[in-house]
Each structure stands twice: as structure tokens, then as C-alpha cells.
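Forwarding these from the shared drive since the link keeps breaking.
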Amino acid sequence: QVQLLESGGGLVQAGGSLRLSCVPSGRTFSGYAMGWFRQAPGKEREFVAAISWGASSFDYADSVKGRFIISRDNAKNTVYLQMNNLKPEDTAVYYCAARLGLIGTMVTDFGTWGQGTQVTVSS
């Protein structure tokens, strides 16, 4: 079972940027599609972005299209989420998730999750 560790969260002003990283613990991402989700206080966890194992397929939530970029470096065994032009409504705990096979966009598509990293965007 792959264990995931996110990093890169923090406090940033609106319009700023952050890059989140996700690495597995003790295993590789080989064959896994990866996703980023977020959960704001009092709200359900929601899809942000996903990428296939070979980085040939992508998907983004409408709310982040044009601002966020998901990527992966399989040689470094790392998945990234570059977040640009951040808005206060992007404030949430961001979770990395792994799914063996094709990409998904639903929480229930992913079986392995990290502990999350907090992103706070001030206005």
C-alpha cells in the first residue's frame, strides 16, 4: 500500500503562488494515477486536479482551470500542484491521492490518501 506525504502548503496573499509536492513513502508511484483534492472548513472534500501515470491525461476542476497545473516527475517519484493567482476561496487543506489505473475525479475513485497540507490565502 502506497503512503503519501504532501508538502509545500503555507500562508500566501491573494494573487500569489505556491507549489505543493507529494511523494510516496516506501514505494513508487508506478502505474498510479494521481490526484489533488481539497477540503475547506465545513465543506466536503472536492476534486482539484488529476494526472495519469504517463502524464498523457489531465483533468481539472473548473474553479482552478487556467490557474493550477498538475505535473509529475516519475524519475523523482514526485507529483506537483503549481497554484498561481491564488484566491481566498482556495483556502483549504489539500490532499494528494493515488489510484492504480486510469485517472479519476471523485473522492471514491482514490484509495490512498495523504494527511494533507494547509493552504491559506489572505485577501
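-- next protein --
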Amino acid sequence: VQLQASGGGLVQAGGSLRLSCALSGGTLSDNVIGWFRQAPGQDREFVAAIVWSGMKITYADSVRGRFAVSGDNAKNTVYLQMDSLKIEDTAVYYCAAAGHPYYIDTSAPTYMYWGQGTLVTVSS
């Protein structure tokens, strides 16, 4: 399984970005897909994740109400819509696949496959 994250960039505070995560070598329905982020000098933190069975989505408290996860099975792609961006959202964003379709775990080490990351910079 390989993941390719894209869509990062520079945006002003209050603005929006949409990240994409394209999956190959596997299917969305066979994987819980998670989004994580890592700011300079900080640990990688959970942002959101989606499990296709039952369409359960979990968000970190810091992004709930501002970020939204969706997916396109035909394109084997997951999206992270980020609205009302804050300076503290600045980080490298990663998508990851759990290797199973059953439950969401917010711990990064439990995800088997990782994309290369895309940088999101929010300016004042």
C-alpha cells in the first residue's frame, strides 16, 4: 500500500485548504485512513480518521468543527477539508493507512502505511 498526500501550501489565517491522499496498492474499504500532523519540534499528533464501514469519523478536539474528512472510492482518495485555519495548524500533514478496516486508533504507531507528508503553513 502506498499513499500520496498533496494539497498543502501557504494560506492566511481564516482561510481554507483541501488536502488529498491517494491510495494505491489497496482500497479505502480495506483500510482505516488517518490524518496526522507534525509541527517543528513537536510529536506527530492525530488529526482525524475515517473507517468506511459505518462511515465513522473521529476528529481531534483541536480541529473538530473546522476540518472535515471525506472520500471518493472511485478515485481511491481521501480528502481533508480544512477551514478557518489557525496559525497553530501549521505543520506537515500526513495521511496513513491502518492496514485493516475495523476501528479508529488515534495513535500513530498503529498505522502501517504512511504518505510522504505535505506542508501546510498558516500565516497571520
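The chain has a mean pLDDT of 95. The longest strand covers residues 17-24.

- D.
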